[in-house]
Amino acid sequence: MFSGIVEEAATIVALEQDKGNLHLTLRCSFVNELKIDQSVAHNGVCLTVVRRTDDTYTVTAVRETLERSNLGHLHVGDRVNVERSMLMNGRLDGHIVQGHVDQTAVCTDVREADGSWYYTFSYTADPEMARQGYMTVEKGSVTVNGVSLTVCNSRADSFEVAIIPYTHDLTNFNAIVKGTVVNLEFDIIGKYISRLMTFK
Description:
By secondary structure, the protein is mainly beta. It has four helices and twelve strands; from the N terminus they run βββββαβββαβββαβα. A hairpin with a 2-residue loop joins strand 3 (39-42) and strand 4 (45-52).
């Protein structure tokens, strides 16, 4: 379980294809605090630490994860938003994030707005999935590349988010341009409510 409050953007130092799996080796500031079997979100995807050295750690993404997320598009040198699992003894600063990416979206516009930025993302909308809560709502929560954000200008297949300078600089949002593929996780509470409505 995560909160969508990214700790930093880790750097990919190695990628290794192993049949249908992809091993990602990364470097970040908290490597020495990690342990084998620990969960870490990578661009919003929950992955398990399988190996660690003094300054790097390795996680593995399976084929289904690669097909559903943007992890298969990554290259050595790319920066990935990382967040360790949420502690249950503190404040929930973002929203409840499972680390289970639903689908990808494409950035269709980036515009600066007096020191902040507005990003527009478009995604493939499926009416049946939307009825199950796989959608955005105005002023609701959405996770983009692991970042907990508030939705504005919500439409059937697109939405906008506003990014403050701190988030822009700390995460890989500063590398997102028109055409960039990002990971989406829709709000789990909305999914449960939508599902419960089908029993009425």
